[in-house]
Write a structure and sequence with these properties.
Elements: E1 5-8, H1 22-35, E2 58-63, H2 68-73, E3 77-78, E4 97-102
Parallel strand pairs: 1-2
Antiparallel strand pairs: 2-4, 3-4
Length: 109
Amino acid sequence: PQSASLNINKLAVAWVHRRKGLGRGLIRFLIQLAKQPAQKAVGQRKSGGGSRGSTLEVVCLSSLPTAVMFYAACGFREDRNVGFGSQDTSELIEGQVYMEYSLRKRQRK
């Protein structure tokens, strides 16, 4: 994505442990982590604009078709307009869907 993001590369819960809230708990933890103010990493210079040096705007992932409903229930939204870079397509499974969770506060009307 064009905005500062936390990218979830892979997330899986073993079949025997599914439907117990573990996946949802992991997602909630990662969203809360992404909402925290950026802290300087060990060895990071005082100046310089690293990607984690600014406030994150989204949590994003590439979902398997069978998990789209799960991520949607966690607050993620599909974005079918996002393409995958040619350098990362070797590990993609046909039908994967790009999804984002916005960390921006929604404005009330």
